[in-house]
From TrEMBL:
SUPFAM superfamilies: MFS general substrate transporter. The keyword Membrane applies. Keywords: Membrane, Transmembrane, Transmembrane helix, Transport. The keyword Transmembrane applies. GO terms for molecular function: transmembrane transporter activity. This is UMF1 family MFS transporter. Pfam families: ATG22. The chain crosses the membrane at residues 73-92, 104-122, 128-148, 169-189, 201-222, 261-283, 295-314, 326-345, 351-374, 395-412, 418-436. It is found in: Cell membrane.
């Protein structure tokens, strides 16, 4: 009997590729909020609003019974935002796993976050309260949308292609965030020639990031498909009650996935180290190395675009070596980076740029692979819930690195040992990661083994 070939082509891979391309656009959309608002413009602008509100002779103002210097209020806001995220994201993740229309939930959360971010534009004079509302709720909905977005990754890519898809999404994000930042820095630095005041230019730049975030979110909203929930916990009550019921059931069941939990702890350490290096890099460059604002801005832009290539490079390396080995290699490079920073000569621009390029190479790669690697260790049907713990625990402990940096700085009165102290986070995170048995974790989660682990 001769073989008969089915005349119906398998269009599933083509449909999946289309969804992946649509999914990349959300990283492109939300990265503008991180770079333009979170990294560059909001902090200095908010501090200027707080300074305008100072009424006391000692240069402080009272808030909630406390006498606060203007610049400290910014850090209190970030702390409040962090605590809120740690509390809200887990039940949100449990709810998202029960929703078939994840693209609609993603868009709703993103558009709400963009609305609050846009409120910052209207905060003028001494109206720091409106800016505070914008950044706290903007950050909260940014994190909430990130949970849903990450939970979509396992739905649009199989285990074999997970690292590639995650890395491309991360790379796309750095490219989008970097392009808008170039435009905004050109507007801000050339505000006089454009007939804009410095404050108005900063507000317009932040507004553009909110509009960019909201506008490009339309692409995944329109092009992604709905994926019915699978293996959802059967608990009674309304949607909110069922979400908390599922959350409680998952917390009890987590001991069945020890590899996922071990990786979570490892991630908390090495990601905290990464975030603290990024947060302190500009201060280190200006205060310790004496570089001008122009050099720092140029370095920030360079890191954005190098990180685009770095994420793609790490995706290719993971296809050959496996995600775990590639992440460990990235953590080794982070150890080299903070060691070199300890001895970096002041005023040497080429060395500083080389260090920035090294950060760009490993920055996107380690974070993108951490996302895809974790997705292999979590059970189907609970992607959003586990990613909510991934984001919430990250935010809930994100002060460890900054506290370490601040303590060492206070004890030594030097930024050099402070930044070098962060090597402990990469070493501890790497050692914990070596204890993750990848094959065992994938099997425990009920996922398929990729050809390279």
């Amino acid at each position: 009997m001769s073989d008969v070939t089915s005349p119906i082509a398998n269009l599933a891979p083509l449909d999946q590729a289309r969804e992946q391309k649509a999914w990349y656009w959300y990283d492109w959309a939300n990265s503008a909020y991180t770079t333009t608002i979170g990294t560059v413009f909001f902090g200095p602008y908010f501090i200027s609003l707080a300074e305008n509100a100072v009424g006391g002779e000692d240069g402080t103002f009272r808030f909630a019974g406390l006498d606060l210097p203007p610049d400290s209020l910014f850090f209190w806001l970030i702390t409040v935002s962090t605590i809120l995220s740690a509390l809200v994201l887990p039940p949100l993740g449990a709810y998202a796993d029960r929703v078939a229309n994840k693209k609609g939930l993603l868009a709703a959360l993103a558009w709400t976050g963009a609305f609050f971010a846009a409120l910052i534009f209207f905060a003028t004079g001494d109206n720091w309260q409106l800016a505070a509302l914008g950044i706290v709720l903007g950050n909260l909905f940014f994190g909430a949308a990130g949970v849903v977005n990450d939970s979509i990754l396992p739905l649009i890519s199989d285990e074999e292609n997970r690292d590639r898809v995650s890395s491309r999404g991360w790379a796309w994000g750095y490219l989008g965030g970097g392009l808008l930042l170039v435009i905004n820095l050109a507007v801000y630095l050339g505000h006089d020639s454009l007939g804009l005041g410095e404050a108005l230019a900063a507000r317009l730049c932040m507004l553009s990031a909110a509009v960019w975030w909201a506008g490009f979110t339309l692409i995944p909203f329109l092009r992604l498909r709905n994926h019915p929930p699978v293996d959802v916990e059967q608990v009674s009550g309304n949607a909110v009650a069922r979400s908390f019921g599922q959350l409680a059931a998952t917390l009890r069941d987590m001991r069945n996935y020890p590899m996922a939990l071990t990786f979570l702890v490892a991630y908390l350490f090495f990601n905290d180290g990464i975030q603290t290096v990024i947060a302190s890099a500009s201060v280190y460059g200006s205060e310790e190395l004496g570089h001008s604002q122009t050099i720092l801005i140029a370095t920030i832009l360079m890191v954005q675009f190098v990180a685009f290539g770095g994420a793609l490079l790490f995706g290719r390396l993971a296809a050959r070596l496996g995600a775990k080995r590639t992440i460990l290699g990235g953590l080794a490079i982070w150890c080299v980076i903070v060691t070199v920073a300890l001895f970096l000569p002041a005023g040497n621009v080429p060395f500083f740029l080389v260090l920035g390029a090294a950060i760009g190479i490993v920055l996107g790669g380690t974070q993108a692979l951490a996302r895809s690697y974790f997705s292999l260790l979590i059970p189907r049907g609970k992607e959003a819930e586990y990613f909510s713990f991934y984001h919430a625990m990250d935010r809930g402990t994100s002060w460890f690195g900054t506290a370490t940096f601040g303590i060492v700085l206070a004890l030594t009165d030097s930024y050099r040992p402070a930044i070098f102290a962060l090597i402990a986070f990469f070493v501890i995170g790497g050692l914990l990661l070596t204890r993750v048995d990848t094959e065992r974790g994938i099997r425990e989660a009920g996922n398929d083994l990729p050809s390279v682990i």
